[in-house]
């Protein structure tokens, strides 16, 4: 039976108290490292920011003389992810006289995967970490292709070879890891239960916001009356969710989603109309640069309502943002105003130039390509009205 929201909140609060006790200062650095890694990987680190920061500061300041590759690589990744400097020289102890990693680690996939993920936090010029990536990848790919690894490690290796841990979408990775963590014999049931409750509670918040922004988008579309606009509001909200998923970042999440949605309208307008009416698109750009009601007269009549919506939406942003942060709205205005895409070649223009065909032929061919791509990737049926604006 599905538990009530109130019960889940109360239970989550109790579990958070239990987890906080696990951060009790201790000389066992390894235990604290694994605790932080599990919390971050389960996506509940936003609940323990202060505790994690304190723990990592202690880990960074404490001498660490481990000769275990997995432990050294884990410490390296945890600290670099949070901005603590760790020299790549710590991996020299695992190399031979020739400067290459010792082959003895070829039989330790867990350590290789940890090294592989950690090394992806390299900065420009750290060739030794790029070499570490190649070393670990070669052996991991071999193990994966010969199916010598068992779940859940086999799944993690396959996933991270495709996309290293530091570059993954945090919430997607969390969903994978949650099931894998449950299979580990030594997993902490308190952390797992809290992670499940947290994602359920956040999902309720996100669904409510998605409903709200869908109604906003419906009104925007009706008011603009533009036929060439793609209905991408779900995609736009997903982008904002990927960047700001925490409950306390609701305002930032909604503002970002609306900004992306408005930018997509601008993108569709330039892509569809710029090749036939570049002057009209430039007039829209001039109006945006002016950013004032008086410049609305510069905008072609069929785009005037869109321009008015831009102005109205940013006024709403300014009303919602705390007074001492209003400069952020001004910065966003400057960034949208600087996107002079009307002077850039769109897909249609490029196709016309390359194949020396008419605009109608270019649009038809590009639509055919798009439809073929959607079919091959088993996407939902493509409506021709949604295809045309992509060009």
Structural summary, described in words:
The structure is a single chain. With 391 residues, this protein is an all-alpha fold. It has 2 domains: 5-187, Terpene synthase, N-terminal domain (Glycosyltransferase, Alpha/alpha barrel); 201-343, Farnesyl Diphosphate Synthase (Orthogonal Bundle). The protein is 65% helix and 0% strand. The chain contains 17 helices and no strands. It has helices at 5-21, 29-41, 49-61, 69-81, 109-119, 127-145, 153-162, 170-183, 189-224, 233-243, 250-273, 278-290, 301-320, 327-337, 347-355, 359-376, 384-387. It is globular.
The strand count comes to 0
Low-confidence residue ranges: 340-345, 376-391
Query: What is the CATH homology-level superfamily of the largest domain?
Result: Terpene synthase, N-terminal domain
Gross CATH architecture of the largest domain = Alpha/alpha barrel
Helix content: 55-70%
Sketch the major β-sheet.
none
Query: Which oligomerization state do the chains in this entry correspond to?
Result: single chain
User: What is the helix tally?
Assistant: 17
* Domains, number: 2
The CATH top-level class label of the largest domain: Mainly Alpha
What fraction strand? Answer: under 5%
- Cα-based radius of gyration, to the nearest Å: 26 Å
Give the N-to-C terminal Cα separation: 48 Å
Structural class given helices, strands, pairing? Answer: mainly alpha
Overall morphology: globular
- CATH fold name of the largest domain: Glycosyltransferase
What is the typical, i.e. mean, pLDDT? 84
- Strand/helix succession: HHHHHHHHHHHHHHHHH
